[in-house]
Write a structure and sequence with these properties.
Number of domains: 2
Number of strands: 3
Strand order of the largest sheet: 1-2-3
Distance between the termini: 157 Å
Largest sheet: 3 strands, antiparallel
Structural class: alpha+beta
Length: 140
């Protein structure tokens, strides 16, 4: 004998108005979540994009340094004035290498001449003071 046992089967069923309203609520929530996730994805993508751009920039800079075997660094230098030849040189302190040279400007030359004149006057005053001190020491 074949029994009529109940069993479950997936069949099409008409939705009630209440069920449709519940589905509409779920749809609205999911659309909102989807928009949030898409915004976060875009923000993350641009954040990661800018990070990748920085990394590629560093890779390019390091590659250039390695390829060329040199880089720019802050190096301590001093300025040397060659008044006889009218040349100003910039010299590295670490290697004593001349980095650049140029002609002395007229303003620099004038300042130098003014300094020489002041030094000369100071030397004359010092010499006069020494002579006066010697004369008074000898006259005692």
């Amino acid at each position: 004998m074949i029994e009529n046992k109940p069993f479950m089967k997936n069949l099409k069923c008409k939705l009630s108005n209440f069920e449709k309203a519940e589905i509409a609520k779920q749809l609205v929530e999911l659309v909102g979540k989807k928009e949030e996730v898409e915004y976060e994805k875009q923000a993350a993508s641009s954040r990661y994009g800018s990070q990748l751009k920085e990394i590629w920039k560093e890779i390019a800079e390091l590659g250039k340094k390695h390829r060329e075997g040199e880089e720019y660094r802050e190096v301590e230098c001093y300025t040397h004035f060659d008044w006889e030849n009218g040349v100003v040189s910039v010299i590295r302190i670490d290697t004593h290498e001349t980095v650049s040279t140029r002609t002395v400007t007229s303003d620099e030359r004038q300042i130098h001449l003014d300094e020489i004149e002041v030094d000369s006057q100071n030397d004359e005053e010092t010499e006069e003071e020494n002579e006066a001190a010697s004369a008074s020491a000898g006259g005692e």
